[in-house]
Amino acid sequence: MAHPEDHFSAIAAQYSRSRIGYPEELYRFLAAQCHGRDLAWDCGTGSGQAALDLVRIVANVIATDISGELLALAPPHARVSFRVAPAEASGIAPGTVDLIAVAQAIHWFDLDLFWAEARRVLKPGGVVAYWGYMWPVVDAEVDRVLADFRAMIAPSWPVRSVIAHEGYRSICSPFREIECPAFTATARWNLDEYLAHLRSWSATRYFVERTETDVVSRFTSSFRDVWPGDRASVHWPITLRASRKE
After folding, report:
1. Backbone region of residue 125 per phi and psi (left: phi > 0; alpha: psi in -120 to 50; beta: other values)
2. CA distances from 7 to 1, 11, 80, 228, 244 (A)
3. What is the CATH number of domain 9-134+158-185+235-244?
4. Of 199, 201, 191, whose CA–CA distance to 232 is shortest?
5. What is the pLDDT of residues 186-239, one digit of tens each?
6. What angle (nearest 5°) sits at the alpha carbon of residue 164, between those of residues 152 and 174?
7. Which is it for the CA torsion 74, 76, 81, 83, positive or negative?
8. What are phi and psi of 83, to 5 degrees?
9. Is the pTM of this model over 0.90?
10. pLDDT of residue 2
11. Cα–Cα distances in angstroms (integers) from residue 110 to residues 3, 105, 144, 161, in the given order
């Protein structure tokens, strides 16, 4: 039976091609918070983008996701173990994890069960860090077209998406909060890459399934009219929150 919060297996290839990377400064900050760097758990890894960055700051990474389709697209790495498992029941040995990282995924979890699992697998002093990004920012004209696109697909977002859209303000960690700086992810994309990113959103998928309308194609000419040159700088403000198990 499919997991009720598996919104991406059906568009796994699109998702894998079009998800963003995160700034090196974010990982350096996380490394500085860790008392040990033996093992990180990348929870909700998707197709492994964050896992392959985490392995630069820790010795080994266990990367889990509910979607076998996404995991199958993750590039292999000798120090990353990819496993199909939910956030609420990882199968990781207790008291072994220095850092739990959750990139753009914690809003899909059963949070009561996830925090219990985090408490179980973390070492004393271990850190949970979760982050997400908001809407891509290019310039006033492109962003105005994106606002119209967002308005059209708005009814198609899964219910738990609101947790991410509100910047994770509603999440309350049971551990001691760590003050985190602000970060921004940046890419240089052409229009096709930008549109592919929009296609990787869960709301885009469900809008297409519900209406049988290719909503991205519907907006392509409007985006093309205002796209600034061949490649443009695209920015995503990142919300990072972290806490430490005592």
Report:
1. left
2. 14, 8, 24, 32, 30
3. 3.40.50.150
4. 191
5. 999 999 999 999 999 999 999 999 999 999 999 999 999 999 999 999 999 999
6. 160
7. positive
8. -140, 140
9. yes
10. 60
11. 12, 11, 34, 13
